[in-house]
Amino acid sequence: MCGHSLGLQPKNTAAYVEAELKEWERLGVEGHFRARHPWLSYHQLLAGPSAKLVGAKPVEVVIMNSLTVNLHLMLVSFYRPVPECHKIVIEESAFPSDQYAVKSQIRYHGYDPGESLLVAAGEDEVEALLDREGESIALILFGGINYSTGRAFDLGRTARAGHAKGCVVGFDLAHSVGNVPLRLHEWDADFAVWCGYKYLNGGPGCPAGCFVHERYARDNSLPRFAGWWGNNPETRFRMGPEFDPSAGAEGWQLSNQPILALAALRASLDMFEEVGMERLREKSIRLTGYLEALLGEDACIVTPRDPARRGAQLSIRVRGSVRSVWERLAGAGVVCDWREPDILRVAPVPLYNSFHDVYRFVEAFRNSGAIS
User: Fold this and answer.
1) Residue 323 belongs to what domain range?
2) Residue 85: pLDDT band by 50, 70, 90 thresholds?
3) In a domain, 4, yes or no
4) pLDDT digit string (tens) for 296-343?
5) Measured between alpha carbons, how far is 185 from 42 in angstroms, rounded to an integer?
6) For position 80, which CATH number holds?
7) Strand order of the sheet with strand 300-301?
8) How far apart are CA 14 and CA 107, in angstroms?
9) φ/ψ bin of 306: left (φ > 0), alpha (ψ from -120 to 50), beta (otherwise)
10) What 3-state DSSP class applies to 113?
11) 178 with 297, same domain?
């Protein structure tokens, strides 16, 4: 029950990866052009399914790099501080990598994170900051779901509030994509980033995703770090000295794509295509509702009780040593994880967890002594 950290391997993953290994064996370099799914454009096979999951158009999505690399690439383009407008708002207790990336970008531009970085616990606090300091806020970066508490945020509301004050608005969807329905294009987000190994089951360290709104699709005035794979495919092999960015999110690519890793992610995305987020979300609400009911009033659940304000994860505050509770659960065959000082994170993932899994977890949890 740890899909919020690393999703399980789909049964068809090995076949998808083996197919590309066979193409490499059979074709060598010609696989870029003659493979069943030519490697030159392989990443485009993932754009459509990924776009559906995040509520975007295919031109707005590219699968590449890792989440924090993509976040840095987005900040290069969209964080353009000036003395009168240099502040960034992030989620309180955001995932550490987001904090590190944002602080390093602030310092890179010559500002002090102690003055330029603002934190907000939720939508109300974001709007209060905008009312108080809106003219000095350049960018808002908010998570879709808090990694520790499991709280889901109203990203559409945040985007509207930020844009009303002239801010750029971006989202970290690491714990949201493949977990809850998303509508990035409709919400009018400027950019978003996510990883592919949690609810998307792409494997450890698999490629991440990036969304750039279509209004920037042909905006070549945006500063960006450039690389050969982001160059227009029609001119890429002319090997010219000037960068001619591809239209849309693909224009932020840097390097040749890792085909074997993309194949593993594609195996899982094909399942999402078959099942659909609506059905998964419906089951997820029932699974977490069942888990909440079995835990009862004795459990201190820090995740919101309203299903609309959470995804597949419930975070439970335990008494005593959370590590000891986790170790006892592991001894009983339960895989979940914990965060200091006292939070146990449990995720019944609708693609592969059952109601019986939930029942077995609660039995083991009670036997661990965490609750009476």
Assistant:
1) 276-367
2) very high
3) no
4) 988 999 999 999 999 999 999 998 899 999 999 999 999 999 998 999
5) 24
6) 3.40.640.10
7) 300-301, 314-317, 343-346, 337-339
8) 43
9) beta
10) helix
11) no
